[in-house]
């Protein structure tokens, strides 16, 4: 089977993140963007908070509780998600940076990757 184009890889990674986000919190994000280069994979998600998290944010202004819960959820799903991503991009993930900004309802995930070929 021929390797996927860059655009097809990016679209498939968006689908994976949408699927895993729904599995984690019960609904998808409003928007997902993926950018893939030879060494980096960047995923940005907008509109990530559930109604409950939006209400919690009113009492936890800097979103520490939400950040902690989301990091733990991401860690619980991380291995399965990364295996699927590696299959899509045809390479290996070597580093992860994860950040959630509850006030802006954004998640950013940055992977360093070693791609085959």
TrEMBL record:
Checking InterPro entries in the record gives: MpsC
Q: Which domain of life is it from?
A: Bacteria
In Swiss-Prot or TrEMBL terms, this protein is called Na+-translocating membrane potential-generating system MpsC domain-containing protein
Q: Offer one Pfam family short name for this entry.
A: MpsC
Q: Where is the Na+-translocating membrane potential-generating system MpsC domain?
A: 6-110
């Amino acid at each position: 089977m021929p390797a996927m184009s860059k655009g097809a890889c990016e679209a498939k990674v968006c689908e994976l993140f949408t699927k895993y986000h729904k599995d984690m919190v019960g609904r998808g994000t409003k928007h997902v963007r993926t950018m893939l280069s030879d060494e980096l994979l960047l995923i940005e998600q907008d509109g990530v908070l559930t109604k409950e998290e939006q209400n919690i944010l009113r009492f936890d202004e800097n979103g520490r509780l939400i950040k902690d819960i989301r990091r733990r959820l991401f860690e619980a799903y991380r291995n399965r998600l990364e295996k699927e991503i590696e299959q899509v991009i045809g390479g290996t993930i070597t580093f992860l940076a994860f950040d959630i900004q509850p006030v802006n309802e954004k998640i950013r995930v940055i992977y360093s990757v070693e791609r085959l070929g």
